[in-house]
Specification:
Blueprint (H helix, E strand, L loop, with lengths): L1 E9 L3 H13 L5 E4 L7 H9 L4 E2 L4 H4 L7 H10 L2 H10 L4 E3 L4 E4 L4 H14 L3 E3 L4 E6 L4 E5 L3 E9 L5 H9 L4 E7 L1 E4 L12 E8 L5 E8 L3 E3 L1 H9 L1 H6 L3 E7 L6 H14 L15 H10 L13 H12 L1 E6 L1 E3 L5 E6 L4 E2 L4 E2 L5 E3 L13 H18 L1
Parallel strand pairs: 1-2, 1-9, 2-6, 9-21
Antiparallel strand pairs: 3-5, 4-5, 7-8, 8-9, 10-18, 11-14, 11-17, 12-13, 12-15, 13-14, 15-16, 19-20
Helix pairs in contact: 1-6, 1-13, 2-6, 4-13, 10-12
């Protein structure tokens, strides 16, 4: 027996719920269901932001917001003019969830608990009689002349309009490919770098503001860099991994990075400064205290890597040692061998080809009455609430198109 719905949403995550709720608020008479393959819904929401749910980011200008999306920057400009971060805040506040801004711009519920967002979505779904069907793994999708047919591992469904919000799901991508869509091959984004190097050994937890460049590439990023027991992480590294997702995958995650621990200083500027310090601190030991805004432990490692002993005084530095130290400070080269997933935030670059989507409606240009929201399409962002913002915006636009 086939159960018929006006609208079927495949994927019980952030984008799926937000879309379904926005459709139902304007058209409560529509029969809507959310199909979720797992036993639980909103699992990614639950773990996001360390269990606090990083709902969005306090960047309120659409043309600025798009710059946080390595893939989707051009396509999201129009949608963000319709529904931006400020609209997200208002949407949640109107439904009883107040958000707060942290120092780095990330926004969380005042409760500091992702459960607040989950409860909000579940109560609204209940209010609008949106059916939530779990344990439903889609096996096939078929388009007839009048409607869509969906077979799961348990049941058969049909609907007038089909909404796909399944995120990075290769099985679903394969089905959509068979229906005529192009899929941009997925590769990981937002990952940390595996580095074994004496200069950072035993410095786990040390952080510094630095700029990082991939050697023989145009990839460059700056921001706090965190040394971990497996290598390097922190916003600067994550930005680089997001923008370089494809290129670094092609290199099989084997490449060299150039770290400028003084952020924007040139090697010449560093050398001039070191020569001045040599005169100023002549009788002091170089190793003892960092004269720059660098953690002392890191400074010590860089000093030793420049061939300067722990007892050497500033006055005794040779020209070669000064040059070597300038290079360690502004152009320290590290070999990267592999990557690690960043916390629980597994984000991929890839998905439905953006040229095959109408970004005024989020409808497929290839198959009428098929819509997409969230990370199923080839859009991804750096960490900080931006991937959720894409889910909210695409869901809102989609709902508006259907309601219109």
């Amino acid at each position: 027996m086939t159960t018929h719905y006006d609208i079927l949403v495949v994927g019980g995550g952030a984008a799926g719920f937000f879309t379904a709720i926005n459709i139902a608020e304007n058209q409560p008479k529509l029969k809507i269901a959310i199909l979720e393959r797992g036993q639980e819904v909103l699992t990614k929401v639950r773990v996001s932001g360390g269990g606090r749910c990083n709902v969005t980011h306090a960047c309120f200008v659409p043309n600025e917001l798009v710059k946080f999306y390595p893939r989707g920057e051009k396509e999201l400009r129009g949608p963000f003019h319709q529904f931006c971060s400020g609209d997200t805040i208002e949407w949640f506040e109107k439904r009883g969830v107040e958000l707060k801004i942290e120092d780095d711009g990330r926004m969380f519920p005042v409760s500091d608990s992702s459960q607040t967002i989950i409860d909000c979505f579940l109560s609204l779904a209940n209010k609008y009689k949106i059916e939530i069907l779990t344990g439903q793994s889609v096996q096939s999708i078929f388009k007839s002349e009048t409607h869509w047919k969906i077979d799961t591992n348990h049941d058969q469904f049909s609907c007038h309009k089909l909404i796909m919000t399944t995120g990075s799901n290769p099985k679903i991508w394969e089905m959509l490919k068979n229906l005529g869509h192009s899929i941009v091959e997925p590769v990981p984004s937002l990952f940390t770098f595996n580095i074994k190097d004496n200069r950072i050994k035993e410095l786990m937890g040390v952080s510094a503001l630095a700029s990082v460049k991939v050697k023989n590439a145009k990839l460059k990023a700056s921001g706090p860099l965190l040394i971990t027991h497996w290598g390097m992480s922190g916003p600067g590294i994550l930005r680089l991994s997001a923008w370089g997702a494809r290129e670094l995958a092609e290199r099989n995650y084997q490449f060299t990075i150039e770290v400028n621990w003084l952020n924007d200083w040139s090697v010449d500027e560093a050398e001039v400064q070191l020569k001045e310090l040599k005169i100023e601190h002549a009788k002091k030991v170089v190793f003892k205290k960092s004269p720059f805004e660098l953690p002392n432990r890191l400074w010590e490692k860089l000093v030793l890597a420049s061939g300067i002993s722990a007892e050497t005084k500033w006055a005794d530095l040779s020209k070669k040692q000064l040059i070597d130290l300038s290079n360690q400070l502004t152009n320290a080269q590290f070999q990267v061998n592999g990557k690690s997933t960043f916390k629980e935030e597994f984000v991929t670059a890839g998905g439905i080809d953006l040229r095959e989507i109408n970004f005024k409606t989020m409808e497929s240009k290839i198959l009428p009455d098929l819509y997409f929201a969230g990370e199923i399409v080839n859009i991804d962002a750096i960490t900080g609430g931006f991937n959720f913002q894409n889910a909210w915006t695409s869901g809102f636009i989609l709902a508006k198109a259907i309601n219109g």
